Amino acid sequence: MSLVLSDRALQDLDDIGAYFDEIGPEIGDRIVDEIERRCRSLMAHPRRGTRLKTTAARELRRLISAPYVIIYEITPDTIRIARILHGARDIDAAVKDGSDI
Prior knowledge:
Layout: E1 2-5, H1 7-21, H2 25-41, E2 50-51, E3 60-65, E4 68-74, E5 78-86, H3 91-95
Parallel strand pairs: 1-5
Antiparallel strand pairs: 2-3, 3-4, 4-5
Helix pairs in contact: 1-2
């Protein structure tokens, strides 16, 4: 099984890193590294994330990397990281119809 980050997830990571780089580059690096580590950890246990309530045709899951939420889906061969959103957002609303994924 492979791990793939969507273009939106890669942009989310860039945005997170840029935000914290203003405070201190080491902080941004540490937070992005932790999120990436949590993403890679899904390779060992892909179904450990909580299923999201969504009307989209696909099954989406969430994994917490506080204060961020990793939104992902599992296909037979791939774990696809769709988004990485701040936990203060209404995650269920953000992914309800799948258009923000």
